[in-house]
């Protein structure tokens, strides 16, 4: 643009300069010509006056004539202030005001003489005189006698004055020319600036748009083509900005959808490079997007089976669904969906992979089927006993009263157990499905605990076990009273069952309050400790599982179902509490429950 402006300015200067120069030259020529013309006219006039007033002498010897005319010439020179020459019709110089005529050559061929002889009026010429070393204007008039030319009278004047004034004109002209150049330069720069400036602005805005900077606009206040171009550029920038905003909005939306998805999403381009990876995918693969983006998919070497699936999908270009177990960075079962992405033109664009963590689903399914198997097994044992003893009775044992009685007792016990088992299973399923919401109410702990312990007293007495109660302070807690009772009775009953005769079971209740005001962060701690057989370390993590028993035979003999602790744990969790166990074989077991004092 700068170049264009300079060129435009130069063109302007050249145009203006050359026209001023042409005008100057023309003027100088005109001036010179009219000056010379008027000078010629006045010289001619003078010559005619001289011609008329001169007394022409034709006779005499040549030296006489020379002297005569030279004297005349010298005399006239003084009054006319010009060189005068008398020339005979044959060209011989007879007299000259400035030179010796005897030494001068024939003048017949001089331009002014030839002119004068031809026109019979006058002749003129401009010539450089080597004698005076300057340009001279010569004017000659013929001396006529009838039709015959008898001689010529010539006057010569220096053109110094003319040339001086012409030079002056040139001097002024050059000065003017320079001034015109400067002014023209300035004006043409302004003009060029006003022409190129809007183009420059438009170019810079266009450049900004190319650099994806859409907030710049052209300031247009012209209505010409440049103004229209500016408007067009502005409208283009508006629409581009709008489109870019829309695109980035869509992109953000898509990004937030992708990032908040729990499924992993991976996109692989046509070259087999990873083009996109959301946060869940990073977590599942155990690599950050930074490490994987732009890399080939088979870089994920830890997941050999996964990369094989991708290769297969690339080969067959069809949807593939499979379940794969990942061991790195964490063991999990993944459902993998691979879909080739087809472009509108039918071209293959890449691969979209969706990873779905189904570990929990599969574990739940496994637990459910295990539970069904366990339940069936647990139900089968008492039913088999009932059936077996009833058969034996029917086969004749009925007659032996003693035996019959003991058999019936077993049948009764087993059906009792069956009843309890079914009751517990139903209870557990009710709690697990959260069909019955908790009924929270303030529970006055001291009398409530006293009541629970009282219920267990008979059983404890039967085994000669001492039941100890310790409530630290008189306070209330918010809980579902029936559920809380169920929890405590279950644990006390376990304590009594798994403690040999003469042992001790203790229930301790404390309030864990940090500040003066009671908040939902404050807790109640129940500790149920016994001096029983204890639980081996290896079994500790599993005792809250359904049907899990450390010693099956012992549990059976104590009438246990293996569901008690599982129910307890669920109920504690429904109260937003925690339960943990500490135990040492042969020394005793301690269950510690912590529950919030109040609920919001
Ligand atoms: P069960 O009806 O068999 O008692 P629970 O779910 O109540 O079932 O208990 C699971 C298992 O945990 C029991 O079979 C027993 O082996 C062990 N257990 C529970 N409480 C105690 C305890 N206080 N002392 C020793 N072992 C216990």
TrEMBL record:
Pfam families associated with the record: HAMP, HATPase_c, HisKA, PAS, sCache_like
GO terms of biological process kind: cellular response to phosphate starvation; regulation of DNA-templated transcription
Name by which UniProt lists this protein: histidine kinase
Keywords for the protein's UniProt record, in alphabetical order: ATP-binding, Cell membrane, Kinase, Membrane, Nucleotide-binding, Phosphoprotein, Transferase, Transmembrane, Transmembrane helix, Two-component regulatory system
Membrane topology: Multi-pass membrane protein
Domain Histidine kinase, chain residue ranges per copy: 374-599
Domain PAS: residue ranges: 250-296
Domain named HAMP: residues: 193-245
SUPFAM superfamilies given in the database record: ATPase domain of HSP90 chaperone/DNA topoisomerase II/histidine kinase, HAMP domain-like, Homodimeric domain of signal transducing histidine kinase, PYP-like sensor domain (PAS domain)
Main location: membrane
Recorded superkingdom: Bacteria
Species, as recorded: Paenibacillus mucilaginosus K02
PANTHER family xrefs: PHOSPHATE REGULON SENSOR PROTEIN PHOR (PTHR45453)
Enzyme Commission code: 2.7.13.3
Enzyme class: transferase
CDD domains: HAMP, HATPase_EvgS-ArcB-TorS-like, HisKA, PAS
Reaction(s) the record says it catalyses: ATP + protein L-histidine = ADP + protein N-phospho-L-histidine
């Amino acid at each position: 643009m700068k170049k264009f402006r300079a060129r435009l300015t130069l063109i302007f200067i050249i145009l203006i300069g050359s026209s001023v120069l042409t005008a100057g030259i023309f003027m100088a020529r005109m001036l010179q010509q009219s000056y010379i013309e008027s000078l010629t006219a006045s010289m001619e006039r003078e010559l005619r006056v001289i011609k008329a007033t001169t007394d022409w002498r034709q006779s005499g010897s040549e030296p006489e004539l020379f002297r005569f005319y030279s004297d005349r010439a010298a005399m006239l020179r003084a009054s006319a202030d010009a060189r005068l020459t008398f020339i005979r019709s044959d060209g011989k110089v007879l007299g000259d005001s400035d030179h010796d005529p005897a030494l001068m050559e024939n003048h017949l061929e001089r331009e002014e003489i030839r002119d004068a002889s031809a026109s019979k009026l006058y002749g003129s010429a401009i010539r450089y005189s080597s004698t005076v070393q300057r340009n001279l204007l010569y004017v000659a008039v013929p001396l006529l006698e009838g039709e015959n030319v008898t001689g010529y009278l010539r006057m010569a004047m220096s053109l110094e004055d003319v040339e001086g004034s012409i030079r002056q004109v040139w001097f002024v002209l050059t000065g003017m020319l320079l001034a015109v150049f400067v002014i023209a330069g300035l004006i043409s720069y302004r003009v060029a600036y006003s022409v190129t400036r809007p183009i420059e602005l438009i170019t810079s805005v266009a450049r900004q748009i190319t650099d994806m900077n859409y907030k710049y606009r052209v300031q247009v206040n012209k209505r010409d083509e440049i103004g229209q171009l500016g408007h067009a550029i502005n409208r283009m920038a508006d629409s581009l900005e709008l489109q870019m905003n829309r695109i980035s909005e869509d992109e953000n939306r898509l990004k937030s959808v992708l990032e908040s998805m729990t499924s992993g999403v991976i996109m692989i381009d046509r070259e087999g490079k990873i083009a996109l990876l959301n946060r869940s995918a990073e977590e599942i693969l155990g690599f950050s997007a930074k490490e994987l983006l732009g890399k080939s998919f088979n870089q994920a070497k830890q997941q050999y089976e996964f990369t094989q699936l991708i290769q297969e999908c690339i080969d067959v270009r069809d949807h593939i669904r499979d379940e794969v177990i990942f061991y790195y960075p964490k063991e999990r079962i993944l459902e993998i969906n691979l879909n080739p992405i087809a472009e509108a033109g039918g071209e293959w664009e890449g691969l979209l992979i969706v990873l779905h963590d189904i570990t929990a689903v599969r574990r739940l399914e496994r637990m459910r089927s295990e539970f069904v198997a366990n339940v069936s097994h647990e139900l089968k044992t008492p039913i088999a006993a009932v059936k077996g003893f009833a058969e034996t009775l029917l086969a004749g044992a009925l007659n032996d009263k003693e035996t019959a009685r003991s058999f019936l007792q077993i049948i009764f016990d087993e059906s009792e157990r069956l009843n309890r088992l079914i009751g517990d299973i139903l209870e557990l399923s009710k709690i697990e499905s959260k069909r019955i919401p908790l009924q929270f109410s303030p529970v006055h702990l001291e009398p409530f605990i006293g009541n629970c312990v009282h219920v267990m007293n008979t059983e404890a007495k039967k085994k000669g076990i001492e039941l100890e109660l310790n409530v630290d302070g008189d306070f209330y807690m918010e809980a579902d009273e029936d559920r809380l009772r169920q929890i405590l009775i279950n644990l006390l009953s376990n304590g009594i069952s798994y403690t040999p005769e003469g042992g001790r079971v203790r229930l301790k209740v404390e309030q864990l309050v940090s500040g003066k005001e009671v908040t939902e962060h404050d807790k109640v701690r129940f500790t149920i400790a016994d001096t029983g057989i204890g639980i081996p370390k290896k079994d500790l993590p599993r005792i809250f599982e359904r049907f899990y028993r450390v010693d099956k035979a012992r549990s059976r003999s104590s009438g246990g179902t293996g569901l008690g602790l599982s129910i307890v744990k669920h109920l504690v969790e429904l109260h937003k509490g925690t339960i943990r166990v500490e135990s040492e074989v042969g020394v005793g077991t301690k269950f510690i429950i912590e529950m919030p004092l109040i609920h919001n």
